[in-house]
Amino acid sequence: MALPVLSSSAVKFRRVLAHFPQELSLAFAYGSGVFRQAGASAEYGETNMLDFVFAVDDVVTWHMMNLLKNRNHYSFLKFFGPKKISTIQRYGAGIYYNTLVPCNGRMIKYGVISTDALIEDLLHWKTLYVAGRLQKPVKILAQNENSRLQAALVSNLKSAVTAAFLMLPESFSEEDLYLQIAGLSYSGDFRMIIGEDKFKVQNIVKPNIAHFQKLYSTILQDCPQVVYKHHLGRLEIDKSPEGQFTQLMALPKTLQQKITAIVNPPGKNRDVEEILLQVAHDPDCGFLVHQGISGIVRSSSIVQSAKTILTAGAKKSVIYSLKKLFKMTKGGLKKTS
């Protein structure tokens, strides 16, 4: 099963892609420039920045080729060459962003990640940075026949459903599920305190329920632990300790490690299975899962944001941060008015 490609891929995205080296294992566009968010006008979607992620097999070679084609996209780091850029890319979430880049009459931001780093994040939630973006609707622009990547994309969606189940009650709406899933990669992100619209998750989900259904309906229908009443938009899950233990054991490795570190006292050696069985019986099971996710996101978001000063340069970093603050303030004013 491949990640579904959402329909009506606009020519404007393909035209942007044509400006870059074509050795891509995956390319996708995401964010408010692609999918309308609640509270935003149609005109806003046509003028705000377009966000892209490019996964590449050979990072050094790709940056070398991109420096030849698009040298002006890079900050002062261009003077250090593709190897140094690739080294800096590995820090934080393993992705290198060039931001506020003029392209075809629009501003774009694009991130470059190695295929191996992307697969690791999708399978194990090492940083939940790009994996988190791929838990929400995206517009796939290019995808090669890498079977490991295909399987990892689906695994990431299944993991998102499992984690959400553990934090939800026994019965809930489909919208509740998608709100929980969309919020996973924002849990613990310091930018949600300053720099992002506080209602961002709701704004993403509410106008895009149909797109979330395209991503998750097959997984929900095939999941033995859920009763999916599609016609009613309701779901029921097994909240018994046995059911929760099965879900905990299916979580990505990094999240399991974070949960066990919270529960297991220092110096006490118990295996993961024993600790997760204890968590499955804990009334605060969902809260412990949330804490574990927050721990993953917090550390990667801080390092990734600090890295932006290098990859974007001081001037672009300030401009980009001010734009985020403006969006946050604007979102807050709309909700209170």
Structural write-up:
- The chain has 337 residues and is α+β, with helices and mostly antiparallel strands.
- It folds into 2 domains: 129 residues, no CATH class; 147 residues, no CATH class.
- A 5-stranded mixed beta sheet has the order 3-4-2-1-5. It has a 3-stranded antiparallel beta sheet with strand order 6-8-7.
- The protein is globular.
- It starts with 10 loop residues before the first helix and ends with a helix.
Shape: globular
Task: Briefly note the structural class of the backbone.
Answer: alpha+beta
Q: Which regions contain 5 or more consecutive residues with pLDDT less than 50?
A: 4-9, 328-333
* Total domain modules: 2
Spatial strand arrangement across the major sheet: 3-4-2-1-5
Mean pLDDT: 87
The amount of helix comes to: 40-55%
Q: What fraction strand?
A: 5-15%
Short structural description:
The chain is built from 15 helices and eight strands. The protein has 337 residues and is an alpha+beta fold. The longest helix has 28 residues, at 285-312.
